[in-house]
User: What shape does this take?
Amino acid sequence: MAPETRENTFLFLDGAMGTQLLAAGLQLGQRPELLCFTDPDIVANVHRSYIKAGSDIIYTNTFGGNAHKLAGTGYTVEQVVTRAVEVAKQAAQGTDVKVALDIGPIGELLEPLGTLSFEDAYHLFREMVEAGAAAGVDLVVYETMTDLGEVRAAVLAAKECCDLPVYVTMTFEENRRTFTGCTIPAMALTLEGLGVDAIGVNCSLGPVEILPLMQEMAEWTDLPLIVKPNAGLPDPETNEYNITPEEFAKQMEGFVELGVGILGGCCGTRPDFIEALTRRLTGRIPARRGGKTRHGVCCASNAVETNGVRVIGERINPTGKKRFQQALREHDLNYILNQGIEQQEAGADILDVNVGLPGLDEPQMMADVVKSLQAMVPLPLQIDSSDPRAIEAGLRHYHGKAIVNSVNGKREVLYSVLPIVKKYGAAVIGLAMDSDGIPQTAEKRMEIARRILDAALAHGIPKEDVYIDCLTLTVSAQQAQAKETLSAVRQVKEELGLHNVLGVSNISFGLPDRIRITENFLVQAMQCGLDLPIINPNQKQIMDAVATFKVLSGEDRDAANYIERFANAATAAPSPVAAPSGGMDISTAIAKGLKDECRRLTAELLKTKTELEVINDLLIPALDKVGERYERQEIFLPQLINSANASCEAFEVIKQSILNRGGESVSKGKIVIATVEGDIHDIGKNIVKVILENYGYQVIDLGRDVPVQKVVDAAIENDVHLIGLSALMTTTVESMRKTIEALHHSGHPCVIWVGGAVLTPEYAQEIGADYYAKDAMETVRYAEELFG
Amino acid sequence: MGLRSEQLNEREILRYLGCQAEVPPEDLVQSVRRCSREVAAAARPKTVWRLFPLEGSHPAGTAVTFDGEDIARHLADCHSVILMAATLGPDIESLLLRAQVRDMAEALVMDACASAAIEAVCDELEAGLRSEWEAKGGYLTDRFSPGYGDFPITQQSSLCGLLDVQRRIGLTLSASGILIPRKSVTAVTGIADSPRHRRSRGCEGCAMYEHCQMRKGGTPCGS
Assistant: This one.
């Protein structure tokens, strides 16, 4: 039977397990989980002493019992978990005490910062939960977690294989972040969305330091709260904790008033701590909580509160953008990521992500883009697709609380998408339209909005997570509709009390000087209650309008942000006029790494020359000259790359020019490059990519930590016969060898070059490579040899 | 513990980038300074250390043994050993990933600055421990890390275990033995009753081992 989290009573957890086992003779460096086999009495005694001290729930001795940490011990996860549950249940026999399956972090960081995939993490957790459920635990507890992505894998694993309650506690530092940067609001928003039963904080700090963290958490969630602090702070030299059981119990009283109902201890706490705690709180009840006061969406490191105007950046979208479509077809993630970074720097609060293109595997693409974006852009994402599979792929890999864009009033859409939104705990945008199209009146749109809200509520999606898009129509085509949209926005806010989303720029389509219309409409819409405009944040004038509006609406307190944005702009010297480029040729521009010049000069040159002439007669010779100076050590690697980057701008102009006239892209040959499986050192590989691309080769970059088979598949599918592999560690050169073997076994004819710190020409030969490349320039020479 | 950009050794960073010129190019110097500031701002350095008495050349009271002759030689005549780990934290990883998307030239400089930064953090930790023990009449050896000489890189997992690095400083070890966040170090320092001979750390002990142009060109700098 599951433990009840009742409002009017405390649930007491146990104290430290590890501390007790060490005191009983466990050696450092030994796996504590194995004690259940070698010396079960020690573990059982710890359980019993906590039960005697008043614990209502005890944690099994399985903290590190995952397959990754048990590797090489000779025991399986099932054996370890089953045995530990047995020991705990025996200790609890004859009492009402519940047994929680205790699960800590896997011990490896998830990709892309680490190499553990989300799916692997999921399976490692699932294996433990399945074993625990089969052995009869009463609930599952994840504790000492620091990575929200890992927690998500863990929670989904539990939810998808059993019906047991799931508790999650994470470990924060005093700066209110975990080691991986997760914030308290992000944890609360994400885990409440996923349907976890109770959340809180354990380890790292003492009760006094954790109190303000829990105050913040209580603002963001209605879930029952858990606290399991350390016995104060450890002395760095002796590793001893600094408070007594009585002090601990006294400090824990602070949580009672906050309404925290589930209390226990972590490192350094002993049965006497729990005993002091239960004794002190006898006859007390946790204070009633007032309910959460703050709402929003988040990525792991940044929550965006929906209590004012928040800009959703619209640029990650291929509609009507040939260059973006090409990037999608070539799986050029960098191009897409750049769009994300640019919008963040321009002030976007949330990024819309749309990667749908006919003929493309949208779910896969959505997952890839979401994974990469969240590693480097700290903004919540809005998953934008009409394909429920793509929506689910995006949400599954998104380590935060996303927005889904969108559903509409059609029944089949509501019933296929809302269950996914609920499962992953996202917010959702409802378009005020249905199978009859976009209604012409505000009233009709309101009707649909109501229908969408009702359907969302019926699916268990809370009201604050339903946003309505009243739809912008082009004013040059349907002039009367602008007012209808504004009127609907006002009603959604005032009558339904929901947030308004609106794609704004469509309003001005077909008119000259569009930005005037767009800006004016945006301001009017915000006045009516639009708080989540979907706009292009790179348009300064539009962002200025938002900043100005926030002063007049009172959101920008004391106009602080406005002053910061504009005060310096007014007094700053006029921006320096671009250096006169008279006389500068493209060769000099490349040598000096001047990107703007390169772009301008290339456009200039294309008026009189073909794309190929510009590439072969001007760009390549200019790059060669730079390469020679690098070899003579007159310039250094960063400068070489700078020149390559500058010529990259020239290539961009050329690509655009070819796309504009509908031509085939220029490529002197295709090359696949990858950092091999298990290795994530990719800076060298990325340098090679930049240089090769600037010599006109099409580089298919598979990224880092690339599975052996993926390299083989990419070579065959793209019909590529030149492969570059990189590895930096002695430990990963082995997977380089395996990749080369697999390529040879496939029978696909190809030439392979390898590079990386530990490689030498001899070593390269030994593992079966055709060439050893000591630097990026050498790869160009091999490419030229092969492609002529 | 914070990190100031002045703590990053500019000449060292330039050397990592293959530039030993008397007067380095101005644009490169500017880029190094810019990146140093960004790296210092994003770094959240964390360190953890623990003292163990030595039994032979193994930390006493633990289930860990050190492999290899070099570590045994390094710890000869020492009565105790300090295990240490340091990391710049995960924000640096994001910064480097981002830089690689935005501008590879800057990313390369940024990577060199981050390498200098983790060295600076280790140097500071080591210097503090050194003076603390010297005051008590103890003398520290140089830092010695898994991967130096025949001290196997796989030994990292036992150092990480003894130091409980994931819980203490948020450091993890990948299945293929890479410390993550990558700008991290684990090391061992012996303590003896008489002054220790300082040795050159050589290429394997250098933060730039990964992509040092000089080493690959066959002309290591010899520091």
Observations:
- The two ends of chain A are 73 Å apart (CA to CA).
- Chain A has four domains: 19-209, 296-541, 586-660, 670-787.
- Confidence is low (pLDDT under 50) at residues 572-581 of chain A.
